[in-house]
Write a structure and sequence with these properties.
Length: 346
């Protein structure tokens, strides 16, 4: 072979691994997932098509029945999912040493990284609502498939071209029967986002994910957790003290719309029976209103304006929506003035 021909050097070839139709860059590590490391991959025939591949050592699931069952569950869940707000599985490949899961690649990192990149360490109310709405859209699809996630947190919410995608179904589970009916299930969670039922190790339902998503929503809005403690037992006691004894209060800064705060309160009810249901959340005014505004903005940008009755109708509808917002904000201001003397209970 003529060595003068343009060829990849030995070092670059060493870090590239061909698995089926995919080329994995073993030097381009994207992160750590449940029981595996995630790398960048491209199609061998088209390097513009990018994927995230979770590489799992065969030893991990061969040496432990628990690990095998966890991996089996994740694959079962992922194989069934197809939604624009969910990180989807494209292909599975196996060698003698590794199992490879080829997934959607997300170029924006995770939500936690995005929040921390902000100077204020939080997001605006409008952006928080938009991301939360996209999460709820994803969960509505999960709900229809009778799947619960059980580990909703910013690190499992990926961003791609500004769109949010729910990821990491290592703790995901199919549910038989009613999604909101408490059942005896294994406990899977990240404590700071876990519902009281998960912390207490009692029966729970898909409403455990409502609690977790409320904590994520709160984190986006305020840049902090709604409940903190030195350990899991203190965390549970802190939750019981604030929620059950109704001493939970929102920070005064930044000022957040009253209807958004009321939604979070409904999601953070201690008992699942009192917590807002998924059906109610799917059609909640906070999310419906945001969706309508997005539609109006989209039509506005793509509609010829001069003398166009449709454009005039769009403007009238938007003015009505904004007028309703003004009424809400005025009432919120009154509420804020009344509560300025209250202290934020830590």
């Amino acid at each position: 072979m003529n060595k003068n021909h343009s060829q990849p050097n030995h070092k670059s070839l060493k870090c590239l691994k061909l698995v089926g139709q995919y080329v994995i860059n073993m030097e381009q590590k994207l992160g750590e997932g449940s029981y595996g490391t995630v790398y960048m991959a491209t199609l061998q025939t088209d390097q513009s098509k990018q994927y995230a591949v979770k590489v799992i050592s065969s030893q991990i699931f061969k040496s432990s029945l628990h690990n095998f069952e966890m991996l089996k569950k994740e694959i079962e869940v992922l194989k069934k999912l197809r939604h624009e707000n969910i990180v989807c599985l494209h292909e599975i490949s196996q060698s003698s040493n590794n199992l490879y899961l080829f997934l959607d690649y997300c170029n924006g990192g995770d939500l936690s990284e995005y929040i921390n990149s902000k100077l204020s360490k939080r997001l605006s109310e409008s952006e928080s609502i938009e991301f939360f709405k996209q999460f709820v859209d994803a969960y509505q699809y999960l709900y229809s498939q009778k799947i619960i996630h059980r580990d909703v947190k910013p690190e499992n919410l990926m961003l791609h071209n500004g769109k949010l995608k729910l990821a990491d179904f290592g703790f995901g589970r199919f549910i038989e029967g009613e999604m909101d009916l408490c059942q005896r299930m294994s406990i899977k969670c990240t404590p700071i986002y876990a519902s009281p039922q998960l912390l207490k190790r009692v029966d729970y339902s898909s409403k455990c994910d409502i609690w977790s998503s409320a904590c994520v929503f709160y984190k986006m809005l305020y840049g902090k957790y709604p409940f903190t403690a030195a350990n899991q037992q203190q965390l549970l006691e802190n939750i019981e003290r604030k929620v059950n004894k109704q001493t939970f209060q929102f920070p005064l800064d930044p000022p957040i719309s009253e209807n958004v705060k009321q939604l979070i309160i409904q999601m953070l009810k201690f008992e699942e029976s009192e917590r807002i249901s998924w059906e109610e959340l799917f059609k909640h005014p906070v999310l419906i209103h945001n969706k309508k505004m997005n539609i109006l903005n989209s039509l506005d940008e793509n509609t010829e304006r001069e003398g166009n009755p449709l454009y005039q109708s769009i403007i009238e509808n938007r003015n009505n929506v904004e007028a309703n917002d003004t009424v809400l904000k005025n009432s919120n201001n009154k509420t804020i003035q009344c509560t300025k003397q209250q202290k934020w209970i830590k």
